[in-house]
Backbone:
């Protein structure tokens, strides 16, 4: 969904470390939400798909290519390659967010350094180890970032902000000759 830049784009951050910014297919993204009985209802619904409810808000649960992020006491996001197929009930509400999010990757030796320049967060391996995630903001827009391994991050962006947020990240790279990272111009600006 990010169309301004021909992704992937490889460049270097301000420390000279290599970074590649790309987009990957999201697949299906389902939000499960509930109320007082959420833990039981969501646990049963996820268990039917051989998944578990994460116990905290930093560590995702996985089964193969399916990931479950607990994003609030009464809410989880499930990324899967096929529709989850969980039906809403009086105790559990389901919402398909597949078209509402874009999935971007930031990878390479300089990925953590680049992200630390655009997000006020400690991206060191000690503070943010591989296999954990955070919810934070990128230029005042809520995003979910998962550190998949030492030098690879998955970033879920709202689709409506994907172009401008990708532009923000890409403009912090020094791009190899032949590729330009031009800022998005606001058509409302005076000439």
Residues:
């Amino acid at each position: 969904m990010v169309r301004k830049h021909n992704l992937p784009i490889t460049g270097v951050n301000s420390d000279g470390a290599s970074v590649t910014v790309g987009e990957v297919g999201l697949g299906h993204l389902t939000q499960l939400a509930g109320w007082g009985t959420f833990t039981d209802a969501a646990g049963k619904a996820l268990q039917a798909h051989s998944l578990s409810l994460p116990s905290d808000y930093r560590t995702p649960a996985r089964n193969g290519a399916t990931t479950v992020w607990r994003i609030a006491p009464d809410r989880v996001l499930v990324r899967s390659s096929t529709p989850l197929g969980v039906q809403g009930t009086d105790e559990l509400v389901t919402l398909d967010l597949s078209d509402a999010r874009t999935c971007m990757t930031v990878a390479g030796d300089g990925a953590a350094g680049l992200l630390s320049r655009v997000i006020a967060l400690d991206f060191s391996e000690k503070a943010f180890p591989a296999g954990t995630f955070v919810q934070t903001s990128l230029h005042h827009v809520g995003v979910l970032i998962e550190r998949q391994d030492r030098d690879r991050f998955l970033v879920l962006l709202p689709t409506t902000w994907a172009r401008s947020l990708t532009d923000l990240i890409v403009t912090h790279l020094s791009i190899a000759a032949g590729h330009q990272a031009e800022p998005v111009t606001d058509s409302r600006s005076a000439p």
Observations:
- The chain has two domains: 9-25+99-175, 28-96.
- Residues 177-191 have pLDDT under 50 and may be disordered.
- The first strand starts at residue 9 and ends at 12.
